Amino acid sequence: MNTTSRTLLTALAPAIWGTTYLVTSHLLPPGSPLFAALVRALPAGLLALAISRTLPRGSWWWKSLLLGALNIGAFFPLLFVAAGRLPGGVAATLGAGQPLIVALLALPLLGERLSALRLATGVLGIVGVGFVVLGPGAAFDPLGLGAGLLGSLSMGAGVVLTKRWGRPAGVGAVGFAGWQLTAGGLVLLVPALLIEGVPARVDGPAVVGYLWLGLVGGLLAYAAWFAGVGRLPATSTALLGLLSPLVAALLGVAVAGERLGPAQLLGFALALAAMVAGQLAPPARRRVVAHAGPVAPESVPASLRNGAQSAP
Hints:
Blueprint: H1 3-17, H2 20-27, H3 33-52, H4 60-85, H5 88-96, H6 98-109, H7 116-133, H8 142-165, H9 173-196, H10 204-228, H11 234-240, H12 243-254, H13 262-280
C-alpha cells in the first residue's frame, strides 16, 4: 500500500468519528455519557478479540491496559464532560489542539524534532476549526476547559506511546484495536454502572445509535486506523483528526439545517490546508526508532454554534 492509499484509509476513521455528535444528539437517550462510552468501547472490543483470537502476551498486558485507559477509558468521559459544559465549538477547538500536544510529547518520547512546518500546521488547524465551529455565543466554563485539555492530553499521550511501542509482530489491526477497546471498556465499566446505570428507556433509534457507535465508530474505524496509520508520522496522523469536527459541521448543514457563512468556509479551507501540509511535510528526524500503529486521535465532533451534549 502506497502512502496516498494509507493516508486515505487512515482519514476514513476520523471522518466516521465526525458522525458521532449527530448520532448521539438525535438517537441516544440524554444524560448517560458514561454508559454511551461503555457501550461504544466494551462490546466492540470483545467482538474484535473474538474475531482476531489474539490476546496480549508478556508486557503487552500492561501496555494495552495503559493505552486503553489513555485512549478510551479516560479520553471518552473527559470529552463528554467538556462537551456537556462548553459550546460545541469550544470543545471541538480544544480537540483540534491535539496535533500540537502530540508534537510536543514526541520530543521526549519519540525523539522527533519539532519543525517549524509541523508547528505551523498545528496552529493553522486550530485556527481553521475555530473559524468553522466557534460562534458568537461561545462560553468558557473552567471545568469544561480543564476536562477538554486533559482529554486532548490523554489521547495525545496514547498516540505517542503507541507509536513508540509499535504493534507486536503477528498481531493484526483488528486484534490490536480489540485490546485497547476492551481495556478502555473495562476501565469504564464500574464507574458507568455505579454513577449512571442503564438508561431508563432504550428505544429502537437508541439501539441503532449504539450499534453505529460501537461497530462502525468503534471497531471498524479503529481497525481502519490501525491498518492505515502504520508508517505515518505521529504529528501527521494527529492532523487527520481535524476531519472529525469538519465532518460534524458538514452534517450539521446537511441534516440539522445549519448554515456556513464566509468565516466558516474560510475555516474549512485553512483546516484542510493544514491537513494536506501535514501529510506533505518531510518526516521528522528521530533519535528513537518508532514502530507502526498509533491510536486514533479522535477530535470532538461538534455542531457549528450550539452547545454539544456529547463527545465522540
